[in-house]
Amino acid sequence: MLPTPNLDHLSSKDYEQIYEPSEDTFLLLDALESEITFIKNEINPCICLEIGSGSGCVSTFLGQLLGNNSTVLFCTDINPNATSITVETGRRNSIYLDSITTNLTSGLLPRLYHSVDILCCNPPYAVTPHEDIYSKNIIEKAWAGGINGREVIDMILPLANDLLSDNGTFYLLVISDNKPDEIREKMWKQYQFHSEVVISRLAGREKLIILKFRRNGRNIND
Amino acid sequence: MRLVTHNMLQCHVRGCNVNNYPLQLSEVEIEIQETEFNSQFLRSMIRKLEWSALINSAREIGITTLPEVLPDDFDEDFLRNIHRVLLETHIQQGKMTCPNCNHVYLVRDGIPNMLLNESET
C-alpha cells in the first residue's frame, strides 16, 4: 500500500478555498492503486490528465504510483487557488504536476485530441438545484452537480471521447444518485465505450462508485 | 509552465478558430529546475508534440538549440537536449498571445490561466 500523499501543508484556511480530500478522493486513490498493474502493463501511459484536480491529491498519488517523470500529469481546475495548491501538493511529495487554470479542458482541445492515456475526474456530483453549478462560491462549485448531480458529469463525458487515446482509460467517480447505469449505457451507445465498476463504498448515505471506461478495442474512428 | 504544457495550449476565444496556435510567448521569466531523465518517456512524448510549434516557442524564449526538423533517430544528446527544453525549463511569469485574435493569456507563478470572460466564450 502506497501512503496517501502528504497534505500537511494544507490548513483549514486552504479548505475554505479548495475541496478538502475526503472519502471520495480516497476511493479514487484506492481504485488507481488496484489498477496499477493494468495501467502499467496494458496502457503504459505517456499523458495523464485530471479534470478538477482540487488539492492535487489524486494526480500526486498517480505520479507516485507511476514514478516521477515516466508520464506527464496535466491537472486542470477552474479555481486558481486549486491550481496553485495542486502544484504545491505535488512538490511536497516530489511529483511534478503541470497545472492549468481553465474550465474543464478549455484551451487543451483540440491539441489533446485522442492523446490522453489516463483521464481521471472526481467531478462535482452532489444533487443540487441547477443554478448551483454556476455558484460564485468556489467551494460550492467544487461539489454542486445540479439535477441528479449529473450536469457537470454530462459535460465531461463527451470530452472523454475527444481526449482518450485508442488505448486510453477514464476513471470517473460517481454516486448512486448520478444513475451510474445510465451513464454507462450512454457511453456505450454514443461512443462505444466499455465500462466496469472498479470499486464502490458506502460513505454515510452516499454510495461512492469508481467507473472505468475504455474504447471498444483499438483504432476506433469517430 | 513547462513547454510540454505550452505545446498543448490553443486560443479558445469564441470564433477564433484559425491560426490560433501556438500562443506567442513574451515577457517571460524563466527558471531551470532539474529533474530526472527518462529516455523512454521522452521517446513517446516527442511523438505527441507539434514539433514546429515547439521550436518556434523555444526560440521566443531564447532557446535555439533544437533542430528545425525532428531527426529520425533520437540519440542520447538529442534526448538530453529535449529533456532540458521540454521538462526542465519553467516559464514562471509571462504572456501568451494568440497570433490570430491577439487575446493575451497570462502565466503567473508558473501556472497558465486559460479562463475567459463570459463574453469571450
TrEMBL record, chain A:
- InterPro entries attached here? Euk-Arch_PrmC-MTase (IPR052190), SAM-dependent_MTases_sf (IPR029063), Small_mtfrase_dom (IPR007848)
Q: Which domain of life is it from?
A: Eukaryota
Gene3D superfamilies with a match to the protein in the record: Vaccinia Virus protein VP39
Tell me, in one coarse class, where this protein mainly resides.
nucleus
**A Pfam family matched by this chain, by name?**
MTS
Q: Name one GO cellular component term.
A: eRF1 methyltransferase complex
Q: Which keywords does this Swiss-Prot/TrEMBL entry list?
A: Methyltransferase, Nucleus, S-adenosyl-L-methionine, Transferase
Chain coiled-coil ranges: none
Q: Where is it localised? A: Nucleus
One GO BP: methylation
Q: What region holds the Methyltransferase small domain?
A: 48-142
Q: Which GO terms describe its molecular function?
A: protein methyltransferase activity; S-adenosylmethionine-dependent methyltransferase activity
- Establish whether keyword Transferase is in the entry: yes
Q: Which family does it belong to?
A: Belongs to the eukaryotic/archaeal PrmC-related family.
Q: Protein name, please?
A: Methyltransferase small domain-containing protein
Natural source organism: Diversispora epigaea
UniProtKB/TrEMBL annotation, chain B:
Q: Which GO biological process entries does UniProt record here?
A: rRNA (guanine-N7)-methylation; tRNA methylation
Q: Spell out the molecular function terms from Gene Ontology.
A: protein heterodimerization activity
Pfam families listed in its UniProt record: Trm112p
The organism's place on the tree of life at top rank: Eukaryota
Subunit info? Interacts with TRM9.
What family is it from?
Answer: Belongs to the TRM112 family.
Protein name as annotated: Trm112p-domain-containing protein
